[in-house]
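re: ur msg from earlier - yeah i can do the pyridoxal-5'-phosphate complex, just paste it... oh wait u already did. ok heres what im feeding in:
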Amino acid sequence: MSSDPGNDGFATRAIHVGQEPDPATGAVSVPVYATSTYAQRAVGEPYGAYDYARGGNPTRAALETCLASLEGARHGLAFASGMAAITTLCSLLAPGDHVVLGDDVYGGTYRLFARVLAPLGITFSLADLTDAGATAAALRPETRLVWLETPTNPLLKCADIAALADVAHAHDAALAVDSTFATPYLQRPLLLGADFVVHSTTKYLAGHSDTIGGALCLSDDARHARLAYHRNAVGNVPGPFDCFLTLRGVRTLPVRMRAHGESALEIARFLSSHPAVERVHYPGLPDDPHHAVARKNQASGGAGSPDRAGFGGMVSFVVRGGEAAARRAAESTRLFLLAESLGGVESLIEHPGAMTHASLAGSGVTLDPALLRVSVGLEDVADLIADLDTALREKPVI
Ligand code: PLP
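and the outut:
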């Protein structure tokens, strides 16, 4: 099996790394080690690597080993949620430190910086990280971290990871990339120079809308030791069954991501020519302003060829007729379930301004009130297109 992260062994690694048959029973699927503690032979002499399950658990370790391999990282750390991963990464910061935050990040990430970290003395500025000049202008002598989401949620903007790593490092800051939308199947930020990769594994990595989780991958040993220490000190660890579900999802990540991407591209094309749609955001469309950067991020650190791998399953679009028309469409679909979250096998639709990104209120960042976001699932794409078409043609009740 290849251990070269740029090699096609990705699908093989998703199924085998960290997942050798259980030595005790030969089980081919990693067992759920539902134990809170581990017996010791003698005082201070555990049987293996574990003494207490907040510190470590074999199901969690299997997930971490696999995720690290997929990201081309030396280390993986799993968390109870994506926000727990982000919070733990930010525990490396100290009062007086400054963070440059993309101006189009997940609302919960913004809320963490604005409502939890800022009162603790960790300041931040919002910047359009797709604009190198705006990014450089936002950096200060006390900037320690640049926080990038690419593609962003909900506008699917893509920033050049390698270029931003250079900008951040030139200012002695680290670059963290929330790569939840892309997954390691499409892009591997560490191979492009980023210092940390963050995932809400709740989404594509687990892939079935049945568990909440998060992950951090990195290659720096000292930072990993601090983060593992902080995670144990804070205690925001995932349970073994959640790790099992996530790992089970990871095993099918390549086939799911390809299928999500194929259907999303068809849906983005369909929406682009729909009379009720004003604008479509999807980096897989050749005329999308972020297409070239998405290709660059993916080609140099991902599955190799975006043409084969696709551009992910998230599409957002602005409905003609303003907020009322958008809300009406979101409430009229039958297959696309009106719900927050993304990345599962079932298609979802949501109104970011009122749902996932409501916590951006007061940030100065405004989303078009007629913006809708869809997570394209694995249903038959013709059924999904028919569902959206019917919903977009829905007329107001008078
Ligand atoms: N990052 C992104 C891009 C997200 O979309 C989300 C959740 O929607 C998170 C982080 C937070 O993840 P979680 O809900 O698993 O805490």
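cool cool. The chain is about 35% helix and 15% strand. ping me if u need the other ligands too
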